[in-house]
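Request: Could I get any protein with tokenized structure?
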Amino acid sequence: MKLFDVYPLYDVEIVKGEGTHVWDANGTKYLDLYGGHAVISIGHSHPKYVKAISEQVSRLGFYSNSVINNIQRSLAQKIGELSGMEDYSFFMCNSGAEANENAIKLSSFATGRTRVVAFNHSFHGRTSEAVAVTDNAKIVSPANDTQMRTFVPLNDINAVKAELEKGDVCAVIIEGIQGVGGMGVPTDEFLQSLEKECKKAGTKLILDEVQSGCGRTGHYFAFQHAGIFPDVISVAKGIGNGFPMGGILIAPDIEARYGMLGTTFGGNHLACVAGLAVAQVIEEEQLMANAEKVGKYAFEKFATLPHVVAVKGRGLMCGIEFDMPIAAIRKQLVFEKHIFTGAASNPNMIRVLPPLTITTDDIDRLYNALFNLLK
């Protein structure tokens, strides 16, 4: 049996990771500035993370959500402290797509409405509801292509208001920073207006922080730069540092009734100890402050590269846009400079989504590599 093709593959097998580096089967060492789609938040094989998972699996790997799991409560409390969302409730699942799926479902339950407003160039996942609000026709199947969602331009509050006035919108879903779609950033003013208009319309505001959350922009969530309080916040990727985990934070005014949401594997013991270790390391090693500091340095540095049009994003969620397609350069980065970076839907963009432990020296290494390849 052969594997189903998912992504175009580099001819590299990664077998080991430590900190901001990974090694292939031949022993070649690479600087990892992509973190496997922004998943690696505290670095590969962090000792505290490895110890927590190893000790937990030796005791109990899994039991269902039909019994008390106090690690869930500890994790919820710690994320509440880090994010300042202590009065929110936390539903745990397994992935970002699943988190967004449940966020939309919960919003529809809460409002009794059916339509969702999303944004051009958005990406929210590949499950049924999540892919339906993803602006990428190539991954939306006929079964997902319903009329119950509408796309509008990012940062256009009048376009949103026109949809909300129709009275049938259960939720507006927006990424804290667009990832796959090209690092579009909602302005603080737009998010503030969006929160106001959603409240006025009785519509739930969902902030998708799957890629931009967990400290990547200097705050725990990217939307916190705008000082708003969404109704539902989805998280995944960096929350587990490689262990599959997702969840939604739910505002206190949304009723949680038995049977509305459910999961078999969500919030399992291994996922929770992984998430708790990640949260503790982010706090103890002041990784949000590091993300802000190194991110600022990176933006200023990358803006001086040859052929750069713009540097987009925030903190350690960085998109470098060039005046030409960049796929060949990214390949050279891997095989000649031994540096991993990410792509975007914009063929002229390189995405930099490193572990939050990154240093300015690591940024300098990418800068020098790109400068030599571009000149």
Remarks:
- Residues 14-46+289-374 form a domain with the Aspartate Aminotransferase, domain 1 fold (CATH 3.90.1150.10).
